[in-house]
Amino acid sequence: MKMSWFISLFVAVILLFGPSSSFSSTSGPIGLDIIQKYNLHIVGTSSTQEIFLPQKLSGPNWGLKQSVLKRAGFDLSPYAGSKVLLLRYDLVEKYYQTSNFGTGTYDISLWIVAQGHKAIGAYVTCRWSDGLIPGVFAVNDPGIRLLKN
After folding, report:
1. For 4-36, what is each residue's pLDDT tens digit?
2. Which top-level group of life is the source organism from (predicted)?
């Protein structure tokens, strides 16, 4: 009886203090270095999915993302065909777009591409209440900034 109590306590300690899939005790959330570098502000909770990058980073999906990633100094080519994590963080910042009709602002999400706990790329997409809308931008795009009061 005493042994089963000890095992239960041991399991509880492991569950409470064991490693997390997106946090490390010393490094914080995956992509924290990118979040800090660009002074971004996260709102809400993140989501994570595991995906395989295509062998060829081309076409309207990953070709566009690879192009945007390169503008910010990232290159996913060495990771083509590999399993990666895709993390989504909603941001406080807005995307400002100026046109002939004035300036529009859009809610945005930061996407971190990671392998293990190492961020290997980041890009931003626009979103609205019904989901994502077209628009993939470099994480260093000048249109991304805090809403002016």
Report:
1. 433 343 333 333 333 333 333 445 789 999 999
2. Bacteria
Question: What are the residue ranges spanned by the domains of the chain?
Answer: 21-145
| DSSP helix/strand/coil, 37 | helix
Main-chain phi, psi angles of 108, to 5 degrees: -135, 160
Which secondary-structure segment (H or E) carries 30? none
What span, in angstroms and rounded, lies between the C-alpha atoms of 55 and 108?
A: 28
Three-state DSSP at 54 gives: coil
DSSP assignment of 55-83:
SS--IIIIIHHHHHHHHTT---GGGTTSE
